[in-house]
Design goal:
binds flavin mononucleotide
Amino acid sequence: MNSTIETIDNRVSLRRYKDKKIEDDDLNQIIESAMRAPTAGNMMLYSILVIKNKETKKILSKTCDNQPFIAKAPVVLIFLADFQRIFDYFGVSNLKEYCKRENRDLPNPKFANLFLAGGDAFIAAQNAVIAAESMGIGSCYIGDIIENYEDKKALLNLPKYTLPLTMLTLGYYPEDFKKSKSKRFEKDYIVFEEKYKRLSEKDLKDMYKGKEEKMKKKNRYNAENYGQYIYARKFDTDFFKEMERSLQVMINNWLEDK
Ligand SMILES: Cc1cc2nc3c(=O)[nH]c(=O)nc-3n(C[C@H](O)[C@H](O)[C@H](O)COP(=O)(O)O)c2cc1C
C-alpha cells in the first residue's frame, strides 16, 4: 500500500470534531486539491462555498434534516453544480448575435449541462475529502443539502443555474476518537466483468446477510428482513420525501425557460 491508498482505505465519515480551527493555509490546500479534480472539458462547472459563519452553519444543520454536528464543524464546504458562470459569460460574449449570424441553435441549459456540472461538483468534493483526510482532517458528506432548496437558495444567494448538490463538514479528529470502519459489500456483487450481471434471489440474500444480522440488534420498524428495514429507515421517511420534493423544484427551476 502506498500512502494515498492508505488514506483512502482508512478514511471514515467524521461527525464529531476536535475544538481546533482549520488554518487558512490548510483549508486552501484542501480547496486547491478539490480544484485539481478532473472536470468535464476542463470547464470547472462547479463552485465551492466556504462556510465558517456560525449562524449559517446553524441554519444548515436545521435545514439538512436536523443534524446538529453540522453546526459544530469548524468549516463546511458546499459544492454547487454551476452553469451560471459560463451562462453569464455567454451573455457577455455576444453569443446570441453569433448564433444568429451562424445559424446555430441557442437553447437554455438543460439536462446535459446539469449532468456535467453535477458530476464536476461531486468529483471535486471527493478530492477535497481525500486531501483533508491526508492532512488529518476528517469529513462527512451531507446529502440532505438537497432538501429545502428554497431556504438554501435564499440563504446562499443562489442564482438559477447553481444547484447545491453536496456538502462536506470538515474538522479534526477528536483525541478520544476510536475509528471503526464500516463494511462494504463483497466485490462480486458490485464489480462485473465486461457486462452487467443482474443478481439472483440467492445472490441478493447472501449480499445483504451481514446487514440483516446487524439489523436484528436494532430493528425499530417491525421488519422481517433488511429490505423492509432499509425501506422503512431510509426511503419511506419525511427526509426522503423532502429530498424528492426539493430536487424536483431545483431541477424544474433549472429547466424552466425564462
Ligand atoms: C452522497 C452522500 C450523502 C451522505 N449524507 C450524509 C448525511 O446527510 N449525514 C451523515 O451523517 N452522513 C452522510 N453520509 C455519510 C455516509 O453515511 C457514510 O459515507 C456511510 O455510512 C459509510 O461510512 P464511512 O464513510 O464512514 O465509510 C453521506 C455520504 C454520501 C456519499
